[in-house]
Amino acid sequence: MILAVRPITVLPRFTALPHLSGRRALSSAYAPFPDKLAFAFDIDGVLKQGKFILPQAKRVMKLLTGEDGQLPRPVPFLLMTNGGGVVDAERVKLLSRELGVELGENQLVQSHTPLKPAMAEYADKVVLCIGGPKDAARKVGESYGLKKAVLPHDILHWNRSIWDRYKFGPADEELVRHDIDFTTTAVSAIFVVHDSYDWGRDMTIINELMQSEGGLLGTMRKDRHVQKPGGEVPLFFSNPDLEWKSDYPVVRLGMGAFSLSCSAVYKAATGLDLPFTQIGKPHRLTYEFADTMLRRRVKELRGVDQELNVYMIGDNPLSDIWGANNFGWDSILLRTGVYQGGEPSHIPSAICDDVELAVDWAFKNERVRTAKEA
């Protein structure tokens, strides 16, 4: 297999290492050690397929943390995913157990992690949080400082007619908060932090709030066909991925499909484009946030600020490769996820069969780059 190279770069071509039985050998020579080298890894389709951890992922984690003794010191890296719906600290603990290494707070960027500063502006206001099972979205919002985070469950409990196809059970009642009266209390913002578990319900509520009088449920603006600057209620989506790779043989629809559906319904109802803020890969805000966290990680490891050459390793040409290319990072596309071959929509620095080969290619490329700079 020949690794593809972006025409606009000066990166040389390399031939991928052959597949070996058992443990695969990475680059045998790490001298000089590439001090500027850093990595950002997507998770689904790169380190995991569904709930299954790829064996190459565990070996890479042991290598970069220095736990296997092959490197003289650790290489800074973080995990950067458009997944979410779990409190960051909890996801860090879970991934640490799954990957067999201890991850720190500056080594994970979920789709909604960059929303933390935005949520801080609504700390004391009623904010609708959507996504994931049960009260997962509320927990994410509260971990970012929200004091009045509400769920679609809370709204349906207030008035079941909003979406009468859903039948409340005892487990639903346990999720409801009873301290907010939506008759007189407006929703100040909407944060979709993970995949909707009920598209019809959540789309209905979003559509109503975006056409309401100041975020007050049960109302509708007379001028709803005229776009207000920023929209009636600030709306944030945290994951633009149309598709994602699980352990199912065909890619699944992601939150990007949900936001497209919300936009189509709003357009049909008002004739207007749905106003919202989108973060997550490939959007620059997410890459800026990740870059800041990587530099914090370098400071933790080495005690100094340092220039970095970051390699984004992902399986999605749109979210991973396009985003990294636009931000100025190198990018490596894998065949273990969404991308399965052919000419990718966005050209990476290299294409590899798995994450272990990708890391090895990055080490080789840094040695070439260092030699040219010498």
Automatic annotation (TrEMBL):
Transmembrane segments: none annotated. SUPFAM superfamilies: HAD-like (SSF56784). Keywords: Hydrolase. InterPro entries: CDP-alcohol_PTase-I, HAD-like_sf, HAD-SF_hydro_IIA, HAD-SF_hydro_IIA_CECR5, HAD_sf. One of its GO terms (biological process) is glycerophospholipid biosynthetic process. It comes from the Eukaryota. GO terms for molecular function: hydrolase activity. The keyword Cell membrane does not apply. One of its GO terms (cellular component) is mitochondrion. The keyword Metal-binding does not apply. This is HAD-superfamily hydrolase.
